[in-house]
Design goal:
329 residues, alpha/beta, 9-stranded mixed β-sheet, 13 strands
Length: 329
């Protein structure tokens, strides 16, 4: 059974659940040790094509996939590469939305497949080589900052920029499972070439204190903005992503008449029982159903006709800075 992301992960100081965090600390030390050992002992392989890695310092929810989508739109001849989290196919396989399902290739690859060629492969090296053999000029890898197997030409980490209401995207510095970090912050940043700080569309300026954390790295400011207005009328929203509460906030900020919102764990596999619950709850409010594109591709085909996919996109504040970062490609 998958568990929802603990919201207390993203509190900087004085977070709740102190006993849980304390009990999970030893597991965090093991996680950090294993990650560091794997990175130190692995010799990266050159797959024969340049690789841009778009990764996270934390466990998801920062807006990584919209950044991948934005880069693919700017880089002709680029193919995307994903591990295909939640998919059953080990790959390498080129994703075909007319053939594959999210249960086979994962939700994010299926979502990206309308923009560019996408490959899923549990072995990232083999996936990148397959893309190169199929004519990719370069590979944009969705996630993998902590995966040392591929030689990366450019490493970008995406960080959530929400700091209102005591939120802090890096938590109190704890590593999974006692916090959101995948590895110690300093080590993760040391391997990054640039940071994309992803702000909500309704946040005017980034927090100076958060910017100071990345003072030794180029920082590009981007915003997650609606690519279309929310559907009209009362809506029941739902999402199974890393930080589902951010979808609720974004829908409200975009003017959605949100009657209620139901969060699910990341990559949640919607079954008959969960879908019936959503439909019954929507009927109670006389509301439609709205969710993210990532959730929508995980729905059974018949349900896609009943649910509106609300798209968002990453919009960069300084397009010239992004172009400069990508100039070598």
């Amino acid at each position: 059974m998958k568990l929802a992301t603990p919201r207390w992960w993203y509190v900087r100081r004085g977070a709740p659940a102190p006993v849980s965090r304390l009990l999970l600390k030893p597991v965090s030390w093991i996680w950090a040790y294993v990650t560091a050992r794997r990175i130190a002992r692995t010799v990266p392989v050159d797959p024969g094509v340049p690789v841009i890695c778009v990764g996270n310092l934390t466990l998801g929810g920062a807006g990584k996939t919209p950044v991948v989508r934005a880069l693919l739109a700017r880089l002709p001849g680029a193919h995307a590469l994903s591990r295909g989290h939640g998919g059953s196919l080990s790959g390498p396989v080129r994703v075909d939305p007319a053939v594959h399902t999210a249960r086979e290739v994962g939700d994010e690859p299926l979502m990206l497949a309308g923009d560019a060629p996408v490959w899923t492969s549990r072995d990232r090296v083999e996936g990148a080589k397959a893309a190169g053999s199929a004519g990719a000029r370069l590979v944009v890898m969705d996630d993998g900052h902590q995966n040392p197997s591929l030689r990366k030409t450019l490493s970008i980490v995406v960080v959530d920029g929400e700091t209102r209401n005591d939120a802090w995207p890096l938590g109190d510095g704890s590593i999974f499972p006692s916090g959101p970090l995948r590895e110690p912050l300093a080590k993760g940043l040391a391997r990054a070439d640039a940071v994309v700080l992803m702000l909500p569309s309704d946040l005017a300026e980034p927090d100076p204190e958060l910017l100071a954390v990345f003072r030794n790295k180029p920082v590009l400011i981007a915003r997650l903005e609606p690519a279309a207005p929310p559907p009209p009328g009362p809506q029941l929203g739902f999402a199974g992503i890393g930080m589902p509460w951010k979808v609720e906030t974004a829908l409200k900020a975009a003017g959605c008449d949100l009657a209620d919102f139901v969060p699910f764990p990341d990559h949640f596999a919607y079954d008959a029982a969960s879908l019936k619950m959503l439909a019954d709850r929507a009927a109670l409010f006389g509301a439609g159903l709205v969710t993210t594109e990532k959730d929508w591709v995980r729905l059974p085909p018949a349900w896609r006709e009943r649910v509106v996919a609300w798209p968002v996109k990453a919009v960069f504040e300084d397009e010239a800075a992004l172009s400069a970062l990508l100039a070598r490609f």
